[in-house]
Amino acid sequence: MISGKFAITIHILTLLNKFPNDYLSSEFIAGSINLNPVLVRKEIANLKAHHIVESKEGKNGGTKLAVDSSKLTLKEIFEMTFETIGLGYAKNQPNPDCPVGKKINQNLDALYAEMNQKVSAQLEGISLEDFSNQF
Amino acid sequence: MISGKFAITIHILTLLNKFPNDYLSSEFIAGSINLNPVLVRKEIANLKAHHIVESKEGKNGGTKLAVDSSKLTLKEIFEMTFETIGLGYAKNQPNPDCPVGKKINQNLDALYAEMNQKVSAQLEGISLEDFSNQF
DNA sequence: TACATTTGTAACATATTTTATTACAGTATG
DNA sequence: CATACTGTAATAAAATATGTTACAAATGTA
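Above: the input entities. Below: the structure tokens describing the complete assembly.
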């Protein structure tokens, strides 16, 4: 469920923020992350769907930020790449004839929802610009 | 990194707490979770290493709680099954010649450390007894 | 004692998820 | 019209998680 999408996406966005006037190619970005360019383009496709970046096809094409980095928060990036954090569920259908099995996922859901609120509140206080300024 | 261990472990502990006077077999527990008994025994081995439960081998054997469930917090369970939550890292070594690649994991670390503090604070306020009483 | 039941653990097998690669059509630049 | 990109699908490989089999060792019970 939790993969490196957030890390990849924030890496991409940090680079775009460092070069606000250039269209960066997926190849260039992939070289900084040390990742396959196709995977970079996939994350960029997601960012485009959320209107965070814009791309230009063809020669000298690439991607650049389409929003003000002081307005974009890590919470929004988090939500774009993961729905939630959590600590997993019983993978198989737990036994519905057991009072615990019957309610376990529901109770875990409630717990994780609260976790997400805490984390969201934290991430909402950090803009891409803030994050980028650490470099 | 993040798997279903927390969910499985808390399910086990909730069951043990519901039957404080019995040694529950891994087979019984597995039946509630709908999981292979060997995997249950593996999580129990971890709990034993932390002195949270005790087991009895042989016929009529099984496992029972060894601590007061009002004193055991979800934070401790969390720490027993995961070191940390997080949103991943660039999997491959990012490019050390790029200012962003060079520091990205370090900056993500700092971010995740803060996330863990928030979540830990939340989980510290919930005992196994509290969680168990929801069923 | 002999048997049944259960833990503990290792070795192996399968399934799932993540990451990588290849390929190529479409688009813009010079 | 050659070059250098994006976009995307199909496939492959690698990593991780989950499941299974097997069996020694322990312990209660007839």
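Note for the figure: Chain A touches chain B through 52 residues (CB under 8 Å).
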